Each structure stands twice: as structure tokens, then as C-alpha cells.
């Protein structure tokens, strides 16, 4: 496992098999036992998962649905966004075989020799977060200007380009459903350019010799508008903070997880950029990925950034059409660049980026 091109830590080094934290190496991966934000009780999480299930929404008929059927799907989406911040969609437009192939290619890319991947791997929070996450990451901006074919690793190239086309279509459809569910015009969120800039982020989580001391990805909320990702079918490691308790989200083959980002919450006003524009009506929920002893795991997230790169001066704030005399703006206006830069600045430290922008 590699941290970055310039990192000289031997990340493939195994932890020593004992409970002496002072002797564990490499220490950059060890979550201190006193850090309650990172160390969790796996038994209690497993127990709580039996009582919790994020909504699963069938969107297969959305194109041909009559007004009544479309409203039912929209109501399910908005209810999930308001109450959970996470939901899964099934019977969407993305072929299962393509999703499986994309995940398999992420395995192949990361399990090749270091020479074949060293120029592509990154870890943005390596020296910012208190604990280095047990993962390697490859990310690629797909819009508004797609990468040149030769810029994508050859193992991922063809599949990623095809997969990205489906992600864009699904993302645009989800923004339309959310717009209607909020009582706005169908294209309101897309006209706000919520889907103007987006990227695919491929994470690879190797087997961890002592997963109780490490974390795949620290607790965080997504500092964007919307995230879409398939879960690896081999193992469950995604956990969501629901009612102050970490709960497991078991993988459902063929389903895609959708979660609200910070900016959308604030615009509609319940979380992240989506939380910001929704003025917390839609929820951006904290989540994390666990390290695992027995199996590696892969994920590929599609992150919608808004006008992050194209219009760094465009400001987002609570949508005025959603405000009333008694429902005042909960956040100040900001650019997506300002918000995302602040999120990167604090790293994956378990801090909530939205706090800085609250009114």
C-alpha cells in the first residue's frame, strides 16, 4: 500500500502482533484508543445494524412513470434525504456487470507492482489528519472537461469512461427528483450547476493486520453536493452515524448508495453543500469506512462538486424559494471552492466543516 509519490513510509509494513501501542509500526496508521471519534465498538455496531436499514428505492420506472408513480418515488427520495441522508437505489440505469467490472479493475490496478501505479496514487490528508487512513486513492475529474484517454491508467481506462457516462445520467436524474421533491422546478438544482464539476474517486483498502487500531476512512461528511457509489460485494465496512450510533450498511449487490453532501444540505438547509442550499432540510450525514483483517476492499465514488473548478466565484447559500418568514437562512453564502478548500484544510479530523458557515 502506498501513501503518496513522495512518502517514504513503508506502508506495507505489518503491525507487530501485540497490544503495546508504543511499539506498533508504522504509527501513522494507529488511531489512539482515547480518540472516541475514530475508535468504535465493533460488537455494538454489529448489534445496532440488526435494527437499522437505510431506505432502498426502486427507480426503475421513473422514466415511464405516470404522475402518481413519479410522485411516490420522489417522496421516497426526499424522505430518505431528510431522515437519513443516505439511501440506496435499485433498478437504476447502471448495468450490474459494469459496476462489478469497475470494482474488479480497481483491485487489479492497486494490486499491480508499485511502478505501475506510483504516479497515480494520492492521499490528500496524509499530513493533516491525526491518523492516516488505511487506504490508497486514485481520483479523476470527469467533468466539465473529461480527461484525455492516455491520462487514465490503462487498467481502468475503458471501463471508467463507460461507467462515468452512466454516473452522469443518474446524477442528473437524482438532482431532478430532489428539485421536484423540494417543490422547485424540475431542473432547478441542475440549473444551479450542482452537477457542473464531478469526479470519480477510487479507494482501495488492503487487508489490515490489526483493524481495531486503524480505520479505512475517518468519520466525515462529504463536502460536496451529492455522492453515488456501489459497495464492494465481498465485505461490509461502510458505517453511518444514525441517532448518535454507528451502524453498519451491508452491501446490496447491484444497488448504488446515494448520500447528501454538505453544500446541498445548507442550500436546502440540512447538510454539506447540499445541506447548505437546502437550509438543513436535506441531511449530510457523517460516515466512515472500517479497516478489515481478512479481505481487501474497493470502492468508487462519484462526487458532484457544483461549480468548484469552473466558476470559483459563484456563491451558494440557502435557496430563497425554500425560505419563509419563520424559516430564516441557517448559513451564509459561500463559493463551493471556499467550502471544499476549508474541508480539505481541516482534513479528515472528525470536525464538521459546516460549523464555520453557520449564521
TrEMBL record:
MF annotations from Gene Ontology: dioxygenase activity; metal ion binding
Keyword list, A-Z: Iron, Metal-binding, Oxidoreductase
Family annotation (SUPFAM superfamilies): Clavaminate synthase-like
Domain annotation Fe2OG dioxygenase: ranges: 196-307
Domain of life (superkingdom): Eukaryota
Annotated family: Belongs to the iron/ascorbate-dependent oxidoreductase family.
Protein name: Fe2OG dioxygenase domain-containing protein
Species annotation: Papaver nudicaule (Iceland poppy)
